[in-house]
Amino acid sequence: MFRLWTKMCDVYAGQLEDVGEVTKASTYLVAIKKFNEAAMLLLKNNLFREALAVVKSQDKQNDEIILEITKTWAEYNVLHGHPKEAAHCYLSIGDVRNTISCLIKIKQTKELSLAAKLARYIDEDMEESLVVNILKTDYFRHHKWNEAQELLKNHPKLNYLNMWTSVHEAMFELDPKVTHKAIKNWICDVSDEENCSILNYILEHVEYKPDYYDKLLKIVGSEFISDASLLMPMITVFLAGQLCLIALQYQKTGLLTIDSQKRLIKCFALAYNYETVYTDSNSKFNKILSRLILWIFPKGPLTLDSYTNFELNDDLMKSIRAYLCYTCFSWLKPLYTSIKKKLDSPIDEDNYFSEVIILTQQFQLLFNNYIHDIMDVETSNYFKAKKEIERINQLLTSSSSTTNTNTNGTFNEKLIGCVKTMKSVEENENTKLLDSKVIITSKGNDLKSLTENLKECNIDNSTNFNDLCAYKNQEESNSFCISLQNKEINNLLNNN
């Protein structure tokens, strides 16, 4: 009788399966103690939870079937876009690598942190990559430096990343107020206790070890990888990494080595490119090039010992000085404009005139000291010739379709007029720097910007600064600046 009932239940379960009653069919199989068959029936129909329940209800569980069910369930979840559930499945069967893969797909800090903890036991490179990604995309971006420190406590082998975190935090702690007053005091060499070398600050306040350099070198990267959605956060992360490497080399050698200078130039170039593209940036970290220059040269642009700790390399020094010069002159118009607004007020007018005179003297010194770093003769001549060739080719190309020969064999007067009216090289000067130098484009009125700003402040300066560039030796240049300065002072006295 029992055998008949067992056989009938088995047959009935098959009939139920045929009509889609899978769950009911599995109950009949369980009733006759065909647990494995019931589990496989449920598994075949993607009823994973029920299949596991059936297998685990036995006194002696079949581990192979449990493994097969769980793995199939995990693959199903991955295929249908449920990485979190898939991670649970893989973790339950001890498949750590696939668990990490699923957690990474979630792209949430909590899951990424768990993935990093798991990677710690199977793959140190994966652990490092995951932790660095969390720092960059979340903790650095949102200034969660304390959370970053807590994260790194779970990864003792990555303690060198604490330096990167601390330097990134220091960049915002040192955050100089890039105001007209701060820049004016810096240019005029007025001592300011708030200005300090960021390298000295890092070495005094940030925990580091000499072996951090090689470890950080692998992950910081030598080139900036742009991300349009996270541009400014990624810039600050890149700068923090480069400053770590520069500071460690500085601590070891006492110098800004050639390698450090190259890194510094990359930082300046990145900041320069950002400022020229996003001129009206409202970022908390705007005027980034000015900040970097203030951090590297806290004593001012005209201090004699500013470059004593730089390893000698003329080309690199020229590029660094060019960025410094650009930074100073980018503040020329804003500074004179701010003083001009003060001149409209009758209060302490003499003091404001004194500011104009002092500022003019400083910019003359800056011009004398740095102009040859920006406009060297060879580079200027090269780009003048290149620009002229391009202009002539463009004229010939545009005129070729309209060029006709008349019956007397003479060319169209329109083409002759174009050729005759070509501007001279000096009138259309484009000066650019090779090998990472600052690109400065001069177009007619741009060369007169200094003169126009002086005129706005009631200073009659009829001398074009372009003449100053024509002097071939320093003595002629200095005497010219002295005469210009005396002329400006006399004009001020006459106006008063």
UniProtKB/TrEMBL annotation:
GO terms, molecular function: mRNA 3'-UTR binding
Source taxon at top rank: Eukaryota
GO term, biological process aspect, one: spliceosomal snRNP assembly
Membrane-spanning parts: none
GO cellular component: nucleus; SMN complex
InterPro entries cross-referenced by the UniProt entry: Gemin-5, TPR_GEMI5
Protein name in UniProt: Gem-associated protein 5
Organism for this UniProt entry: Schizaphis graminum (Green bug aphid)
